[in-house]
Specification:
The complex is a heterodimer. By secondary structure, chain A is α+β, with helices and mostly antiparallel strands. Chain A has two domains: 126 residues, 60s Ribosomal Protein L30, Chain: A; 158 residues, PurM-like C-terminal domain (Phosphoribosyl-aminoimidazole Synthetase, Chain A, domain 2), CATH 3.90.650. Chain A is built from eight helices and 15 strands. A seven-stranded mixed beta sheet of chain A has the order 10-12-9-13-11-14-15. A six-stranded mixed beta sheet of chain A has the order 1-2-3-8-6-7, covered by helices on one side. In chain A, 50% of the residues are buried. By secondary structure, chain B is α/β, with parallel strands linked by helices. Chain B has two domains: 282 residues, Rossmann fold; 50 residues, no CATH class. Helices cover 36% and strands 17% of the residues of chain B. The longest helix of chain B is centred in the first third of the chain and has 18 residues. The two termini of chain B are 32 Å apart. The chains are: A alpha+beta, B alpha/beta. At the A-B interface, strand 14 and strand 15 of A face helix 1 of B.
């Protein structure tokens, strides 16, 4: 039985941040672009950004395009998301001092000017929180129906003395999550599908460079891996970390912080919060002796109050993530495609 | 048998400490029995809880907990799917549950028919289908699937009155008879059954007594929280160890001996049990629920000439030849035995019905990591 495994057409699952997307990038873009810069980290590392060594420091560069429905959601909007997304990609390389951001905007004909101004104000506020600004940009308008509302692309550059990859884990290391998981995806899903769920579902979208700076100050070299669990949620991020580091990860499910309202919504919709996107959380890999110290520092930061140590790195089962539910253990699956509410 | 949860402890069905006690009781019991023991549950919700909470890793090595034909969508037979697809292609609007859409018939699914222009509405309940019929002028056929739990809802809707353009294509199934089939399968190793608590709220646990009498196999009715399942298994192993075939109710907070008499009365006023094939299993005497003569005027099979033969021109998909859904539903194979599982057969490109439905064994295993047994992993 033969079957062509590579699809002829790009379907939505290739954009969902999971295995399919990583395979697509490898098959299409790594070809020819895969060579690393002379001294640094390039596309082949498939990390959150690239890094160039300049004298004894590193210049980190990243870019991110943002589309989201709806453009405005509880807890944020596409503008805040665009700034936080890029600042966080830099921060996840250890680069917390952001030199500046670019902003390219593609607007659909007929888009309300007032909404654009609202989005700009929200970008400005997020930049203020991150201690940076938009320093150059580009504007295009396309015909009605040629895109859906608005696409925002931001790129960012930052300097750092030490690059933290998402491949630095070794057995014995602990995994921290900086707060409750599933808030962003659940809030957006609820707004998109008009679920009338009681309680306050709010996106956690926020720039994390300040929080990461705090963690790095407390842990220093003992902070060995950073990853923001965006699309695909904590499950995808952990798989990527496990795969790249060649280790297994055990997660203690009862210690993963989840708000009551997200937990309830997840039960009703049949969705695992570990598969749901976050935009204001980081997974931090720490050497065991520094775990408590880094946890305390993170918890003292306003964005890290609910932080917890949730897992341990093991040598066994490299590339896999094991979930200890408190009742037993199973493998944590990566989700292909967006999580969808259960039908019946 | 451990005392059933009572009082305030009823709120603590997810207490890991209690789970560890029950798991160690399972180990002691399995050791006392002194050989490999297989028990079967017949419910997708039981499998979901077992997989979701990783319970299999806490079961003793010599205990096999197998999922039997407990997914109503999966056991809907090919000719029944064909009837729905044929009606849809004949231009009749169909309303059905979302899980049915991708279930393959001989050559096509309802989703295929929909892609070709047929009208297929996804509904969450029979009530929604009735409402839909009221709002439209043409005929609407409710393609009704599910076990007695769902059939009761269909019956209640029929009894409450439906518009003239509404009819029912019943593929409802009745669980108790299929347990007889599994118990009689020559290759079966099943020594006890964990019965589904929600179905028993309707039928009552007494319904299993004649079965136990005939086959000398114990049955324990269990709920769906992790502790419900573990406690149910402990009771079941005790009965196996003591060679005491009888029915025990480990879900007394919901299930009584008689069950819901009003619901039973409604169910059997509208439906009568009739023999028929279950996909992958066999002919199950009294396993199908069909409309009684009193309601023949609402039976889509009476109202329409369903041209199923028109579908047979299409060749079946070649991959389906390797699908072992039938063996998986009969409990004689597990998804890990299938060469397609997790490779060609995925939730987005399902080959067999077990990967389509959220209650299918393969879909559940895939969602929760694809492999139930992590006993070997060194932590």
């Amino acid at each position: 039985m033969t079957r062509v495994l590579a699809d002829e057409r790009i379907t939505l699952k290739y954009g969902a941040g999971g295995r399919a997307m990583r395979a697509l990038i490898k098959d299409v873009f790594l070809r020819g672009f895969g060579e690393a810069p002379v001294d640094g980290i390039g596309l082949a590392a498939m990390d959150d950004g690239a890094a160039f060594r300049i004298d004894n420091r590193w210049l980190v560069l990243t870019t991110d395009s943002h589309v989201i429905k709806p453009l405005f959601f509880p807890g944020g909007d596409i503008g805040r998301l665009a700034v936080a997304g890029t600042v966080n990609d830099l921060a996840m390389m250890g680069a917390t001092e952001v030199l500046g951001l670019t902003c390219a905007v593609v607007i659909e004909e007929g888009f309300p000017r007032a909404e654009l101004e609202r989005i700009q104000a929200s970008m400005q506020e997020a930049c203020r929180e991150a201690g940076t600004s938009v320093v150059t940009g580009d504007t295009k308008v396309m015909g009605k129906g040629e895109l859906d509302g608005l696409i925002l692309n931001t790129a960012g550059v930052a300097l750092t003395d030490r690059v933290v990859t998402d491949a630095g884990l070794r057995p014995g290391d602990r995994i921290l999550v900086t707060g409750t998981v599933g808030d962003h995806g659940m809030a957006v899903m609820s707004a998109r599908h008009h679920f009338d769920l009681e309680g306050d579902l709010r996106s956690d979208v926020a720039p994390l460079n300040g929080l990461v700076r705090t963690a790095l100050a407390a842990g220093g070299e003992a902070v060995v891996a950073l990853k923001d669990p965006t699309r695909g949620g904590v499950a995808s991020a952990l798989h990527e970390m496990a795969e790249k580091s060649g280790v297994g990860i055990v997660i203690e499910e009862p210690s993963v912080p989840v708000t009551e309202v997200v937990r309830a919504a997840a039960e009703i919709l049949g969705i695992d919060p570990l598969h749901v996107a976050n935009e204001g959380k980081a997974l931090i890999g720490v050497r065991p002796q520094a775990a408590e110290r880094v946890l305390d520092a993170v918890k003292a930061h306003p964005l890290g109050r609910a932080a917890a140590v949730v897992g341990t790195v093991i040598a066994d089962r490299p590339g896999f993530v094991i979930l200890d539910t408190g009742f037993g253990r199973r493998l944590l699956a990566e989700l292909e495609g967006e999580p969808l509410p259960r039908i019946c | 048998m451990p005392p059933p949860p009572s009082g305030t402890s009823q709120l603590k069905f997810r207490e890991p400490a209690k789970a560890r006690e029950l798991a160690s009781a399972l180990a002691t019991l399995t050791a006392a029995i002194g050989r490999r023991v297989s028990v079967m549950h017949v419910c997708g919700s039981h499998e979901q809880a077992i997989a979701r909470f990783g319970l299999r890793s806490a079961f003793p090595r010599d205990l096999d907990v197998i999922m039997g034909p407990g997914c109503p969508v999966c056991i809907t037979d090919v000719p029944e799917v064909d009837e729905g697809v044929a009606l849809a292609r004949q231009g009749v609007a169909i309303a059905t549950y979302g899980d049915m859409l991708k279930v393959p018939g001989t050559a096509k699914s309802l989703a295929d028919a929909q892609a070709e222009g047929a009208t297929v509405h996804v509904v969450y309940s029979v009530a929604q289908a009735v409402e839909l019929a009221r709002e439209m002028s043409g005929e609407l056929v409710f393609f009704a699937t599910g076990f007695e739990t769902t059939a009761v809802a269909t019956a209640a809707a029929v009894l409450a009155g439906v518009p003239k353009n509404f009819s029912v294509l019943s593929a409802h199934k009745y669980i108790p008879p299929v347990m007889e089939i599994v118990a009689e399968m020559p290759e079966t190793k099943v020594e006890g059954f964990l019965a589904a608590g929600h179905a028993a709220t309707i039928t009552g646990w007494g319904i299993f007594e004649p079965f136990v009498e005939r086959h000398r196999i114990p049955v324990v009715v269990a709920g769906f929280e992790p502790l419900d399942i573990l406690a149910g298994l402990v009771s079941l192993l005790e009965l196996i160890r003591d060679r005491t075939p009888k029915v025990l109710n480990a879900y007394p907070r919901c299930v009584t001996r008689e069950g819901n008499l009003k619901a039973q009365e409604q169910l059997f006023r509208v439906f009568r049990p009739l023999g028929g094939r279950w996909r992958g299993i066999a002919h199950v005497p009294n396993g199908n629920l069909r409309l009684t003569d009193e309601w023949a005027h609402l039976d889509a099979r009476q109202r329409f000439r369903i041209d199923v033969a028109s579908l047979w021109d299409y060749a079946p998909a070649s991959l389906s030849q390797s699908c072992i859904c039938g063996d998986i539903m009969a409990g004689i194979a597990s998804p890990g035995d299938c060469t397609l599982f997790g490779k060609e057969c995925l939730p987005e490109t399902p080959v067999g019905a077990c990967m389509v439905s959220s209650e299918g064994t393969c879909k559940i295993w895939h969602l929760y990591g694809g492999h139930p047994d992590l006993g070997e992993a060194r932590l």
